[in-house]
Amino acid sequence: MIDSLPKAELHLHIEGTLEPELMFSLAERNAISLPYQSVEEVRAAYQFSSLQSFLDIYYAGAKVLQTEQDFYDLTWAYLERCQKDNVVHTEIFFDPQTHTDRGISFGTVFEGIDAALQDGKKQLGISSHIIMCFLRHLSAEDAMNTFAMSKPWHHRMIGVGLDSSEQGNPPRKFTEVFEKARQAGLKAVAHAGEEGPAEYIWEALKELKVLRVDHGVRCLDDDRLVQYLVENRIPLTVCPLSNVKLCVFDSLSDHNLKQMLDRGLCVTVNSDDPSYFGGYINDNFRATQTALGLDNQAVYQLLRNSFNASFLEHSERARHLARLDTLYQELSDD
Ligand code: HPA
Ligand code: ZN
């Protein structure tokens, strides 16, 4: 069922779609040496014990991305996967500091990604938005400098986000830059409650004024928070395979996604960093459905949530929901 129904993806780091094969071909194109001998060796290195153990490898892998064409090729490969998985709208994150800190210009990164997204719209009919994330392990001042540097591109982004090492880097560290971003008309989202406590989700809501929480799986530790998220219809972009790979849950059958749905939270399913975590969005749906015994109605609810939680304009959202409803009805009648 999941293959044939349209969906939106709302939690996807474009740097996390770098497949080992592309990593090798970009390394060759740019004459960069990799600490791996083969694609198999790269895949074998993807065993993580925590968020940090993943981030170390992830930032190292991103070094092969040098030119606008590299960012285009990376993004285009992801869009081809979107087409296969029936993703009709995607809101992607990128981390400018991962690239500007090694001398790649902001424009090189942004223009390469955006050119592919424009072609994705024209050639594949996939709509998209770009969200610029600040790396929370770096300073607030660094984030502010990145925000200033990105000004010429603000009108081409939908919002700002916050990612990287959560523990010890609370949302309140970035209150000021998020305030500036909102003043510039950008929407706010943030990773919170992945490894960090429920308190960080409160901070993301109250200090950063986020409209959506990325991960947020720790919210079930706090009943008042769950009530707040439900009453205010704040969506959570959950990434099940990522959570298991990074040891947030011991196994997929221990994941709390079904409990979150049952509590009335607006939960969505997403792939986060699919090349590193063993699967794209439909792999996440399939594995989660099996592990948690989700029925078709629950999957349908998750798909509806993906459009409702998106930053699509009202008419576009309505159009996607109507098409989803029709297709789901047809499948249910068969
Ligand atoms: N959490 C925090 N930072 C990240 C992630 C994540 O899951 N993926 C890429 N950067
Ligand atoms: Zn993420």
Please give a handful of descriptors for the protein shown.
334 residues, 8-stranded parallel sheet, alpha/beta, TIM Barrel, 13% strand, binds hypoxanthine, binds zinc ion
Short description:
By secondary structure, the protein is α/β, with parallel strands linked by helices. It contains 16 helices and eight strands.
Task: Explain this structure.
This protein is of the alpha/beta class and 334 residues long. Helix 4 packs parallel to helix 6. It is built from 16 helices and eight strands. The chain has a single domain, classed as Metal-dependent hydrolases (TIM Barrel). The longest helix is centred in the C-terminal third of the chain and has 20 residues. It has an eight-stranded parallel sheet with strand order 1-2-3-4-5-6-7-8. Bound molecules: hypoxanthine (HPA) and zinc ion. The site of hypoxanthine (HPA) has 10 residues, from loops.
List the helices and strands and how they pair.
Elements lengths: L6 E7 L6 H10 L9 H7 L5 H11 L6 H17 L2 E8 L1 H5 L5 H19 L2 E9 L4 H10 L9 E5 L11 H9 L3 E6 L5 H9 L5 E4 L7 H9 L4 E3 L1 H6 L11 H6 L4 E3 L4 H4 L3 H12 L3 H13 L5 H20 L1
Parallel strand pairs: 1-2, 2-3, 3-4, 4-5, 5-6, 6-7, 7-8
Helix pairs in contact: 4-6, 15-16
This protein binds hypoxanthine (HPA) and zinc ion.
**How far apart lie the N and C ends?**
12 Å
CATH class: Alpha Beta
Strand arrangement in the largest pleated sheet: 1-2-3-4-5-6-7-8
- Strand % is 5-15%
Element-by-element helix/strand order? EHHHHEHHEHEHEHEHEHHEHHHH
Shape field: globular
For the residues shown, what is the average pLDDT? 98
Which CATH architecture?
A: Alpha-Beta Barrel
CATH topology title: TIM Barrel
Q: Give the number of domains.
A: 1
* Helical content band: 40-55%
Bound ions, cofactors and other small molecules, one mention each: hypoxanthine, zinc ion
* Count of individual helical segments: 16
pLDDT < 50 stretches: none
Please summarize the sheet with the most strands: 8 strands, parallel
